[in-house]
Batch of 3 targets.
Target 1
Amino acid sequence: MGNFSAIDISASGLIAQRTRLDAIANNIANANTTRTEAGGPYRRQQVVFRVHREEDAPLSRGVEVESVVESDEAPKIVYDPSHPDAGPDGRVALPNVNIVEEMTDMISATRAYEANVTAVSAARSMASKALEIGRG
């Protein structure tokens, strides 16, 4: 596996974590959305990753986003008869988004993104040093 393969693998991680961060940002932005086009409250989005392999290669070629799915967790029900989306019993279905969990996931995704940036930088540095050695 050469340096360019290492860069490709890290680049796939960068793309995957960017998608994860986009989903987290969307969850935070919609944490209070009680009415969507599909009806009902917003449902938390989760990114599903899978290992990217080529058929003829035994080793992983990185990670890729398999899908972005809606959580099947039930919405939070609160009593707020003054809310415009309250039912006749005064209850409102709120999104199943937990801000603390989203912030924790954001930190994790940011750290993974930073690790991939570091790996790309190291591979780039090694390739640069190899070219210097070849010239001298």
Note: Residues 26 and 125 are 35 Å apart (CA to CA).
Target 2
Amino acid sequence: MSSKRAMRQAQKQAYAKHRSNITNSRFELKKKSITKNKEEKKNKN
């Protein structure tokens, strides 16, 4: 019983880590593109 429970908990944690990695990487990409756009606008002016 306890081993099943531990496995289920481990799977939940792994999935949560996976989801947070996806959202963090998406956020980082947006952040990078925003800073690039700002730099390009500065260079044009």
Note: The mean pLDDT is 79.
Target 3
Amino acid sequence: MSEEQWWVVTFGDMLHWARLTPNEDGSADVFSANGETEHFPNEDEARTALLDADYRAFDGIDEDDAELMGFDLDSVAPPRSDDEDDLLEQMTMKLPPR
């Protein structure tokens, strides 16, 4: 089973995170910045839904990608918390002016 994966998208001056979590049964859950968890029958369908919503896998972004998306790669890191309410507060951030 894969570990959780962080995905990111920017809208205007806002950055939004989503966490894809594969499950042992092959299904996957996506927890997004709107506070909802969506269940998918498999990891591929979860990834496709994220890509369709213009999210990018954070571990695949380089400095040039980050610049195009409007942020400095060194200044952004996936949210961290064991508490989903605390995590949710970190999943949307305002980007600094360019």
Note: The mean pLDDT is 93.
